[in-house]
Structure to design on (312 residues):
């Protein structure tokens, strides 16, 4: 093959097509969100691919005051329009083919958004798209984010964003909650707070909390991580047990003097069905967080996936 045309990239041809349309390097760069130098490089690479070692102005007449294609440039522009048209036509056909296939939305989620936020939206989505399956996999925030990074999963829902750069992600806030301290209703901590409530300092209250064993969710749980990072001296608390679900923690609390910190979303069932109470005091900090739906900024969503994302 005389010319190295197999090295030509589609973005080179796309830049050339826009340049012919706007007849200005800087305007083309602005429209395509590229630098002017990048557009110039694309044109030079095209000229090189078609033999610009011998023809420095193979495609564009740079001696003319006005933008002007050479005869070779006109030939390439015509072919480029045909090629782009063919690719766009194939893209439409591929999208139509995918529409006919069974569609599945996989979403990995931590327990709080997965159990208390996602069901409402999934049901709304299923009313609009009854033939599309939505499969939610519930674990913890760390695991959900790991699946987003390492597999074909397009979405994950997590219990707050903490300690990691988010510049590569699109993040939607889909809810909020508080992280509250819970104990059995006749726990000694309630007697302590009631008797001394007028004379306590925050250090006194936190010091009292340090006397008890704490039961938490497993490492990787956003509730656990958020509490450790936001509650004063929480890293100095006595860690007794870790469980992978909230129910196991609540069961353990009913028969011990242990304490825990869980999402306020668990309160309706916790308070009504169990002998448990929230530990409240004016000196205890209120810990709030946002629950998030996350995807990569660069991921290309199919139409049915974009509609799921837009529902939130």
């Amino acid at each position: 093959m005389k010319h190295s045309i197999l090295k030509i990239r589609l973005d080179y041809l796309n830049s050339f097509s826009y340049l012919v349309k706007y007849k200005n390097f800087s305007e083309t760069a602005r429209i395509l969100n590229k630098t002017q130098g990048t557009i110039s490089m694309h044109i030079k690479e095209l000229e090189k691919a078609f033999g610009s070692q011998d023809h420095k102005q193979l495609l564009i007449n740079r001696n003319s005051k006005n933008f002007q294609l050479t005869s070779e440039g006109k030939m390439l522009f015509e072919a480029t329009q045909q090629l782009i048209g063919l690719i766009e036509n194939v893209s439409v056909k591929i999208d139509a083919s995918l529409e006919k296939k069974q569609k599945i939305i996989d979403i990995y989620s931590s327990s709080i958004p997965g159990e208390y936020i996602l069901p409402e939206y999934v049901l709304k989505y299923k009313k609009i798209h009854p033939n599309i399956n939505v499969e939610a996999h519930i674990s913890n925030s760390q695991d959900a984010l790991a699946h987003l990074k390492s597999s074909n999963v397009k979405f994950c829902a997590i219990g707050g964003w903490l300690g990691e750069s988010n510049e590569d992600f699109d993040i939607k806030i889909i809810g909020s909650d508080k992280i509250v301290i819970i104990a059995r209703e006749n726990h000694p901590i309630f007697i302590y707070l009631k008797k001394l409530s007028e004379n306590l300092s925050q250090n006194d209250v936190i010091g009292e909390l340090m006397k008890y064993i704490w039961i938490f969710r497993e490492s990787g749980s956003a509730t656990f991580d958020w509490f450790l990072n936001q509650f004063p001296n929480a890293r100095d608390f006595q860690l007794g047990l870790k469980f992978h679900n909230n129910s196991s923690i609540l069961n353990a609390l009913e028969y011990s003097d242990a304490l825990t910190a869980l999402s306020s979303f668990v309160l309706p069932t916790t308070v009504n069905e169990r002998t448990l109470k929230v530990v409240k005091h004016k000196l205890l900090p209120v810990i709030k967080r946002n629950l998030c739906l996350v995807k990569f900024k660069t991921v290309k969503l199919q139409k049915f996936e974009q509609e799921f994302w837009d529902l939130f």
The domain at 177-289 is CATH 3.40.190.10 (D-Maltodextrin-Binding Protein; domain 2). The chain has a mean pLDDT of 87.
